[in-house]
Amino acid sequence: MNNKFINSVCFIRKYGRPNAAEKDIYRSLQEQIKLNTQYGFPATYLLQYDALTDKGFQELVFPQKQNHAEIGCWFEVVAPLVEKAGLSWRGREGWIWDYHVDPGFLMSYPKAEKKKIIDAYMKEFKTLLGEYPKTVGSWLIDSESMEYMSEKYKVDAFILCREQWGMDGYTLWGGPHYGAYYPCKNNSQCPAQTQREQINTPVFRMFVNDPLYCYYEHDKMKYNKIDCGLFTQEPAWRCGQDPEWVKWAFDSIYQDKNVGFEYLQLGQESSFEWENRVEKGMPMQCEFVKENAERYGYETVTVGEMGKRFKKEFSETPITARIALTDWANKGNKTVWFNNKNYRINLYSDTEKVWIRDIHLFSEQYRDLYLDTPCTTHFGIYDNLPIVDGVRFSDDTVQAGIFLGNGRILDAFAEDDYYAVILNANDKVLAFRFYEDRIELLGESTLHFVHMQSCPFITDESETAVSYVHHGLHYSMNLKKEEEKTVFTFSLVK
């Protein structure tokens, strides 16, 4: 089965900030519809409740089903939806849509109210379109809401925000960096390890992240030493407007050294104005997609169709690897991202040194912060268990990581039961092997774990283990030296 896809996705609000120009939202949507029609892309249009129930947006979007488009749900909570569910809106005065997590997202409501809000949306959607949506998207969705929509409404795909720290108050950190996964019932950012705890609708991360430079994006490029705004493919931002970056991004996604489900998303939320923003990137990207379909081997499908294909192909979260052994900024950096249902890891090298920049442990026991008590703040955080965190373990003077020495990443490839990364460090050739339940480092090496002195997550550290605590959960990274081999394993402390 072909596992290379592209989706053209536009999510649509009627209301934005107070005094926002509704005509700009219409214009952006109209132009994106024109492009999807021109290139024959089966697009996915996700409607927030205020747009779903608006005659003007209905007249624009509903006829697109004739062009093989999918119409789905964009789930931010707005005043008309809350009132339809028989509840009281608590947004800021004058705001029909409020982007603060409380009250704009489902995790800020108790379980009974979440169900009422979801049911109100789904009932209206089916009344208007004769069926329930197959795709539900949002910057943030909690696992409780996901499980409810998956079981009751048979949703085929969820799309969530990319990896980011604090953008608009939304933090999603330490989850699968790229690729699709089945979330667990306790945490929408965490893959399930068992069928019993698995939500059987896959999650796809929105908008391709730059695997080299996006990691430090929130910190004003302190360690990147490069400023490019947001490091994503979105056509409203600088990377997505640069033909060279777009080609590089496609090359890094659709290559034989990657494994797993490979996908990329076109399009932009309709709240961005067309002139001087979206028009700078989207027409160019559409033309590139059309011209290079045979070269890269992808298929353009709706998000819902991609979800169906994923469910048919995989019964649990597959391994995913994405590599970048060339650097579009010509700084000589290289990176490999790997994740499976148990952990993620990122290797990185610059022109001098090579190190592990990130490891996060995935555990079904780690509960999302808002499952028991709804979010009552403007900001929301979804994360996992940090083992190595190049952002949270760093400060103004320390770049955190597990450093192997002077060297470079050389190559990466899949074997039958592991994924391999070859590198040199201090004039020695080493090899990482990423297995489902462990990591092996082959070759003579010395590991230097660097982090800020007062790292709040680390409780104990020795040559054979590092112990951690995060939101009351205790866990460890265990290091076992064998003949010319170091074995990394991870465990929860009972």
How would you describe this structure to a colleague?
The structure is a single chain. The chain has 494 residues and is an alpha/beta fold. It has 2 domains: 4-313, TIM Barrel (Alpha-Beta Barrel), CATH 3.20.20.510; 320-362 and 380-492, no CATH class. Helices cover 22% and strands 30% of the residues. The protein is built from 12 helices and 27 strands. A hairpin with a 2-residue loop joins strand 6 and strand 7 (170-172). Helix 1 (22-39) runs parallel beside helix 10 and helix 6 packs across helix 7. The mean pLDDT is 94.
In the CATH classification, which architecture of the largest domain applies? Answer: Alpha-Beta Barrel
Low-pLDDT ranges: none
Rg from alpha-carbon coordinates: 22 Å
CATH third-tier fold name of the largest domain: TIM Barrel
**Strand-residue proportion:** 25-35%
Which structural class matches the secondary elements?
alpha/beta
State the total count of DSSP E strands: 27
Number of helices: 12
Which CATH C-level class of the largest domain is it? Alpha Beta
User: How many structural domains in the coordinates?
Assistant: 2
What is the terminal separation in angstroms?
Answer: 41 Å
The geometry reads as globular
